[in-house]
Amino acid sequence: MEKWKIMRFILSHHPPSQISRTIRIKFLNKKVYLCARCSGECLGIITVFMILYFLKSLPLFLHASLIFFLPIPAIVDWTTQTMGYRESNNLLRLGTGMLFGGALVLFAYCILLNRLTLFCLSSGFYFFYCLIPCFILKRSGKLDQYLEYLDKEAKGVSFQ
């Protein structure tokens, strides 16, 4: 039983009180909870891989635009939800996750196309995309609350 509890936490990485932020599927007669946004990311990764298989290449301007703009909805959705301004829903999490997953593939695709300048520039943008929400949450005091809450909830799961 403990194994399933740990696996559930790893796949959903949401405590039981946030189970509404997950997608439930049945696997081996067990309920498996998957993080809605991460499920969207996986779908986005698969979708963009399939699109790139047929396109083979992207014009530089389109490639750069997609890398820079696709992650923004996921960042805004997560940040505004964590700030307590609103509660997102799984359809929105799935959609923003797909956009973010697609951006990650396009980011890695820079290397295959030898667009190293775009890769380096994107790395800087992604660094700030991570830093800005953390800074906003830290300044508002919500980051510490969020981390304390997750820490408290995670203590119920043993990883030994």
UniProtKB/TrEMBL annotation:
Keywords: Membrane, Transmembrane, Transmembrane helix. The keyword Transmembrane helix applies. The lineage of its organism: Bacteria, Bacteria division CPR3. It holds the Pfam family DUF2085. The chain crosses the membrane at residues 34-54, 60-79, 91-110, 116-137. InterPro entries: DUF2085_TM. This is DUF2085 domain-containing protein. It comes from the Bacteria.
